């Protein structure tokens, strides 16, 4: 499919993630250099399903590994899933792919806000599985069974990386609700903190690409504090450029400022009726002014004015115990009134088993080495950029 035809086809689907757009694929070319928009066709001229497939070439070979983030876009309730997965495999085999990772954008279980609130008060509730879900999606259960029967392997990520696998997310329902309705569904502490931020003088502003250095600095500080991988200024600049051009008015970055200092920031994208939080960063040097509450309330107001039906607040770790790292974020999003969802998670299909196995063992080592080398390269680049200025200084 052409990118334009792919974008036109997105209108047929309800929930579409920004990760299933050519703009995001362009932004992630450093990690996945190639990508292709594809469609499944039946009898008509329009595709019945679509996907952005990203590729990473295995060094020294023509073979590739594929990745389908938050896709494919399929009518899961009505499609012949087995046939479509078989068609996908045939397509990948014909394109020198040894294996594929897929993260279907489909909720498996839902815990209503009241259920999570009650669970946070229970000392014995340590993980979401300790709470009875309020809804289990039969379509997702069927998809899991079909994928297992078709040779797909469910990937169990280490606990500290679950947030990267899109397993547990919080969604805030906006459909047919007013701001007063949403405020009424929040915990009184959350509402109080939002009002406190306003009284303290926290200001919310729309940032531009000129502010990318400030965003990256705050994001790096947040990552170092919370133990997740940080991203370079070049990454954020590339992301900003492609999503701003591709989703005009539907990709935004907001700053929370207090006395001129940036204390909070968040990026948001909306392709369909669901808006998604992409990155969030906070400064903890002045927590009393509650910048995060101010940020999210401003986003809620914006999304209500745009007619969005839901707000995906992003991933959390599977932790409910107060002594568990990451539980503070779970509590914050729960007190905002959002429901918790367990998604399908990451699945992989070995197409060429031996090559896939070797590649799978090599990738963790590569990623570990890269996580050590990239910061050094970034520091070297910054130093190199300063050398002309240093050379021009008067030695006296």
Automatic annotation (TrEMBL):
It comes from the Bacteria. Coiled coil: none annotated. GO terms for molecular function: aminoacyltransferase activity. Gene3D superfamilies: 3.40.630.30. PROSITE patterns: FEMABX. The keyword Cell wall biogenesis/degradation applies. GO terms for biological process: cell wall organization; peptidoglycan biosynthetic process; regulation of cell shape. Keywords: Acyltransferase, Cell shape, Cell wall biogenesis/degradation, Peptidoglycan synthesis, Transferase. Belongs to the FemABX family. This is Methicillin resistance protein.
């Amino acid at each position: 499919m052409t990118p334009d035809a792919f974008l036109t086809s997105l209108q047929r689907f309800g929930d579409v993630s920004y990760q299933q757009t050519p703009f995001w694929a362009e932004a992630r070319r450093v990690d996945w250099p190639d990508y292709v928009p594809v469609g499944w066709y039946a009898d008509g001229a329009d595709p019945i399903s679509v996907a952005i497939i990203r590729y990473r070439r295995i060094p020294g070979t023509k073979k590739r590994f594929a990745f389908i983030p938050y896709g494919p876009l399929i009518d899961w309730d009505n499609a012949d899933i087995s046939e479509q997965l078989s068609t996908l495999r045939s397509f990948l085999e014909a394109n020198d792919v040894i294996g594929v990772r897929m993260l279907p954008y489909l909720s498996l279980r839902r815990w209503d806000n009241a259920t999570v609130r009650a669970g946070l008060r229970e000392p014995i509730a340590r993980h979401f599985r300790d709470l009875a879900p309020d809804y289990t999606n039969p379509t997702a259960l069927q998809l899991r069974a079909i994928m297992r029967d078709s040779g797909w392997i469910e990937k169990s990520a280490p606990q500290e990386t679950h947030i990267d696998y899109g397993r547990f997310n919080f969604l805030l329902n906006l459909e047919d609700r007013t701001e007063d309705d949403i405020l009424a569904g929040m915990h009184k502490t959350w509402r109080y903190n939002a009002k406190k931020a306003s009284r303290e003088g926290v200001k919310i502003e729309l940032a531009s690409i000129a502010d990318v250095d400030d965003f990256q600095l705050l994001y790096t500080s947040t990552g170092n504090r919370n133990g997740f991988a940080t991203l370079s200024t070049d990454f954020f600049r590339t992301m900003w450029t492609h999503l701003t051009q591709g989703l005009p008015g539907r990709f935004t970055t907001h700053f929370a400022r207090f006395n001129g200092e940036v204390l909070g920031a968040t990026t948001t994208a909306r392709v369909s009726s669901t808006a998604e939080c992409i990155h969030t960063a906070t400064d903890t040097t002045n927590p009393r002014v509650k910048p995060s509450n101010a940020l999210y309330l401003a986003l809620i107001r914006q999304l209500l004015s745009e007619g969005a039906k839901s707000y995906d607040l992003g991933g959390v770790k599977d932790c409910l115990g107060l002594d568990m790292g990451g539980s503070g974020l779970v509590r914050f999003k729960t007190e905002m009134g959002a429901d918790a969802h367990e998604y399908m998670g990451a699945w992989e299909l070995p197409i060429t088993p031996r090559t896939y196995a070797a590649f799978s063992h090599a990738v963790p080592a590569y990623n570990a080495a890269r996580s050590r080398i990239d910061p050094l390269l970034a520091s070297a680049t910054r130093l190199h950029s300063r050398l002309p200025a240093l050379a021009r200084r008067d030695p006296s």
